[in-house]
## 1
Amino acid sequence: MGAFVLVIVGATFLWGSWEIHQGMDEGIAYIYVGIVLALAFAMIYALVMGANAVEAGPIGNEDLSDWEASDDLRPGLYLAVLPLIGVIAWRDRFRLSGLTKAGK
Amino acid sequence: MARETYRIALSGNPNVGKTTVFNAITGARQHVGNWPGVTVEHMVGKKRFRGVDLEVVDLPGTYSLTAYSADEVVTRDFIIDERPDVVVQVVDASNMERNLYLTTQLMELGTRVVIALNMVDIADARGDTIDTGRMEEFLEIPVVKTVGSKGEGIDELLNVIIDEARLGPHHEHEIGYGEELEETIAHLVRIVARDRKIKDRYPLRWVAVKLLEGDENVLSKLKGSPVERQVRRFLKKVDQVEIEAVMADKRYEAINAVLPQVCTRCVIRMSPSDMIDRVLTNKYLGIPIFLALMWGAFELTFTVAAPFMSMIDIGLGHLASAIHANVAHEGLASLLADGILGGVGFVLIFMPNIFILFLLLAILEDSGYMSRAAFIMDRLMYKLGLHGKSFIPMLMGFGCNVPAIMATRSIEDRKDRLITILVNPFMACGARLPVFVLFAGAFFGRTAGAVIFSLYVLGIVVAIVTAKLLRTTVLKGRPAPFIMELPPYRLPTVRTSVLHMWDHGRMYLKKAGTIILLGAIIMWFLASYPAGVSYGSGSSYAGMIGRTVAPFFAPIGLDWRIAVALLFGFFAKEFVVGSLGVLYGVGDTDSGAITDALRSESGIEPVHAYGAMAFTLLYLPCLATVSVIRKETGSWRWTMFSVLYGVAIAWTIAFAIVRIGVMLGYG
């Protein structure tokens, strides 16, 4: 499934690049959403890694006795460095002030 | 001399301020009635202006002029049969794209249309600049800016209405549908034109377009016509679903060609919601992104919950040890430790999974993404015979099937609703999640998250296949198209998401303290008696029941304990895991020990475990779901069908999984 997710995120970036290349400014939406998707999945992988670390360490789950952090270091996690740079570079575009809060 | 009188029809999408404009025109001179044969309300008002008498009829709010709802049929029948002198379409100036879709259909009807561009104050405040002159030029329709709530522009609107009415017979405007489709339309027009009655009464091009769109109402108007057989023969040769989609695309193409030239801001800058929608509702990327997000949710549900499960497990283990050490009466100690802790405690272990799943679903719901999920699935669901609105109750089924089935009340069409009710039990409710977590954790190790995700997908696939089956056999027909408004994206807050999670999750917690507790005591009794038998053995009452039903489960490789647990799962799905806790726990509430017992004592392999999970997913709905199916369908026959079909499909699929898995060397 990790590979499927990578393909989807990659396809989103490629779609945006293609649209921009065709002169469609709206293609930038794919780049922004691609960045958000990449970071969302990186966060999921990081949470999975954290949970496994707790299971292997303090809780002492036998099934994870030989667990090492590198076991959960998936490409989606370290490749997220690139979109993270994108967020820092375009931080004003990722401000969430354009969205109202749920329940309001 | 006769007084000059005109009849005006007021049309428009829902919530565009149509009634406000109607009130602004007619004041108190109005009365409410019903359209003949239907319960759709209509209002008629009078107005004398510039010496002219105007009768204003407020038509029902509709998004289009198809024949999928009573509102739409009433609106277009009125325009065709009553031939009002002018149709005024009230358009929401802040949402032109959607509103102009109805305009294109009114234009096709060949009626004289005036656009009341309402709520321009809101559009102005947003910074939209709408050039009504250019709009009139492109659409060949008079456009008047109004603010119905303040009565602004109403006099000018009335002036334009009277001028238009005086122009006499209406003229047709056309949307071009492309060369190929235009040839098809022209051919059909030639056939229909041979029926003089139809030719005199309806605009022929409109009839042809509607017939090609698969409009049953228009087709019924040809009943007994000399051209009926020829028309039906012609329609059989074309793909009406595809044509309907192409026509809708062409109408939007026409709108999008006009809009940027008349509205200078709204189409240039995209809001954050528009940007996100552009990607998440993309024709090709939408569904894969949805699947990836759902997988992410299940991965978190399984993995992140694990440390919390372990902590509850350790706590319950200590409690069980304390009971055994401090309660001298052996029977009472067994009831407390094996029965209550084994049953209720084992159910409680899965609370973190339930709460995490509900939290993630709440975040997706609160953000507005779930409406998009329904939107992107609509095309697929429609092709497979399900109504787009069905997807929301189906998603709600991930929480609990009972409110999900009640939510089908929003589906107007009886057949659409019945199909949605019947397929809803295949959506894996929260109570089934612990069974998946238990089996997947025991037999699939680190791929458990993906295995659980695949079961949810299996549920959706079975639901869709069942819908298709019903749609092509006993509930023949086409689902009504789905028109929904997508709310803007919102930022989920911790408070609202946690509240929603708690609302759904507490039901599970409440059940654990009531019905599951009772079930655990009953199961403990059945596993401990008749007196003298060893606890949970084959000679206990539970064993006897298990051996009776075991032949049914043997072909799918499940032992009598799992069979008993599944049997009791009819009362509430939580019983399945609670019963397994009692029957496999055997004096030990440690979930690790129960997992080990499942692996070693049940004699099942991963392939059987997957079969057992598929069976749990698809078999009998729980008692509460059965009773709500009976109530909502009003039929014992459909209720029994749901129960028997569920068992049959569950057994068949579990059997296929096991046999194919064994053949491939997995068992």
## 2
Amino acid sequence: MDPFEIEFIGENRIVSIIPNFSHDKIFLICGEFGPFRAGLPMNVPLWLAVMLKQKQKCRMVPPDWMDIEALETIKEEEKISRFFTKMPHEHYMIEAKLILGVAAEDIPRAAEIKTIIKDIWDIRMSKLRTSMDALMKSGGSYGRLDHLTMMEINSVKPLLPQAMDELHRIKMMTRQTSSSTLNSSTFSQSGSSQNK
Amino acid sequence: MSSSNYLSISDILVTNEKVPCKFLLDLPKMGFLDPSAAENDLKAGTNIEIPLWLAESLYTRRPPLVSVDLPKIYKETYREILNADACTVDMHKLGQHFYELGCYIAKHDIKSEVSATLLNTYRQRFKMILSATVSTDSINSVQPLSASERERTKSAVVTERALSSWLKIGDCPLTTASMIANHRKRKRAEMELS
């Protein structure tokens, strides 16, 4: 999948904004939002928030997790832990990128937050690489993807499944030849055509 | 890697690889197969290299006309090197279709150690694909990879590029700057034309 498609999926996340205009409820495919009251915080999908922000129609409320201290602890945990730790949510990178991109002035200490999120991302990506290599070396037949976000899983996507596929195929092809002489009774249920 | 794919080009290429074979029977009028032979007939006991597709069909006859030997990359000496450190081997030179040919050849290995070597080699060399994907020195890092490994690398690079371009877009000032630069250039080019 293209990263932009995942961004599109992630844009459906609900975020808080403070509009500076008043409007009735609006009805969208993904639900109804509003009514908009100037100065009162409300929840809208991320894509709508970005659109309104670009038109200077609202102020973004920083999401709970976009906080220097909280992110510091996540970063430390991520550094210490051998496994992937739980992220604030599935699309943290997309939310961070979009909000910090269009509404950096609404977020306190935006530059620092940007750096920390990038650090966390980099730590996780390098961890992903090393664990992929370790998975192949150890000869494991499956990998656990706990706490990996969609964007991160997508980044290994053609390579890792293809490699596992290929390993499996080599295993099956080489095993078939050795087993066809040893035990021919295994296939008897599925028909004897398998036996040479 | 598709063994049963009749029309797959890569499979055709794999089965066209030459394997050393020993003929078990005298074959009349087949001397042309052996370029060094002067006679018309092919003698039993001759060792020549023939394509895998031919070897396979001669081997499956009853009684078999040939006994298939392992190509040198699957032999004991190379197996030892591969098991020690597969990453040092230049697969592009030694075995373009190492894994695919290995799958075919594995059944001719009496000790059946080829299969373990194939798996082990693949596991070890996965690291090389990973590093070739992110490497800036793409020529040197891709060079020692076999044909199928190159395929993998190519598709991994596409993902990698897409992701890094996604990360750069938006809050990176470079994109707008180059766009403006292009725009000016275009204008200048237009002015020069008119």
